[in-house]
Specification:
The protein has a six-stranded parallel beta sheet. The protein has a three-stranded parallel beta sheet with strand order 1-2-3. By secondary structure, the chain is α/β, with parallel strands linked by helices. It has helices at 15-26, 36-46, 63-72, 91-100, 110-113, 123-131, 154-163, 180-186, 200-215, 231-239, 245-260; strands spanning 3-7, 50-53, 78-80, 82-83, 105-108, 135-138, 169-171, 193-195, 220-221. It has one domain: Metal-dependent hydrolases (TIM Barrel). The chain starts with a strand and ends with a helix. Helix content is 44%, strand content 11%. It is built from eleven helices and nine strands.
């Protein structure tokens, strides 16, 4: 089974405008139209069995609506994390609702949501999420939309790990996009998962292998960052690495299945 732990979609009516804005500002083109039906199509083409959506509420008032949509699109092949903007009023009730709906994790994007990952104001929210048994996925490192800011630097993320031992935390983009030296200095060997999303092109084969080996194959999760990359190409990239067949399968799906309990 192949599980893409890091995918993005939008409601059908919003997808064209959302992708146009994101693509123009980031200087990249989407691989498909950003809808759930489009995601299913590229999953079929690539042989991906499950995809996990990572929604982001960029404003407090979006939290409830985005979560309702995320819950509504879930089915056998499409799983979704939830989102909570840190400034959301009554986030405690929203978190209870997400747990009740079977949501298994929360996605945070410090750049888009305008907070520092190690800001103590976030700690009660993190504590509640982890106490509820949910995992967290952080965008980590530089974002193409905000190339001059870094609100989840590996050094900051290390502080969060220290404060919440035993929590299941995933650092997107191999621990810190375009912060590779800081990843090596601060995160390797910690109790942290990395996802591979949008990282092969930046790291190259040799450095990708180095990070995977140093962090441990059991802590690496396959992600495409769809629609911003080709799922087929991402799978092909993974298969160029010096990994055994068993290690490939752990990264492509085994580790995610264990975390998601599927």
């Amino acid at each position: 089974m192949i599980v893409d732990l890091h995918a993005h979609c939008f409601p059908d009516q919003l997808a064209p405008r959302a992708l146009s804005i994101l693509a123009e500002r980031a200087g990249t083109e989407p691989y498909f139209n950003g809808t759930v039906s489009g995601l299913r199509m590229v999953m079929d083409e690539a042989g991906i069995d499950r995809a996990v959506l990572q929604p982001i509420a960029t404003k407090p008032g979006q939290t409830v609506g985005v979560n309702r949509w995320a819950i509504s699109v879930q089915e056998e092949r499409i799983i979704s994390f939830g989102t909570i903007h840190p400034e959301t009023q009554g986030w405690q009730d929203e978190l209870k609702g997400l747990v009740g709906a079977g949501i298994k994790g929360i996605k945070f994007h410090p750049n888009y949501q305008d907070f520092m990952v190690d800001d103590p104001k976030l700690f009660p929210l993190y504590e509640a999420i982890f106490t509820a048994g949910l995992m967290v996925l952080f965008h980590s490192g530089v974002d193409l939309w905000y190339p001059d800011t870094n609100q989840c630097h590996p050094r900051q993320l290390k502080k969060v790990l220290t404060l919440f031992p035993g929590a299941t935390i995933i650092a997107a983009h191999m621990g810190g996009f375009r912060c590779w030296e800081a990843v090596e200095e601060n995160l390797l060997g910690t109790d942290l998962y990395f996802d591979t999303a949008y990282s092969f092109g930046e790291l190259g084969v040799e450095r990708m292998e180095k990070l995977i080996r140093a962090q441990g194959v059991e802590k690496i999760l396959f992600g495409t960052d769809s629609p911003w990359s080709s799922p087929q190409a991402e799978i092909a990239n993974l298969k160029t690495l010096k990994l055994t067949a068993e290690e490939q399968q752990m990264i492509l799906g085994g580790n995610a299945r264990r975390l998601l309990k599927i």
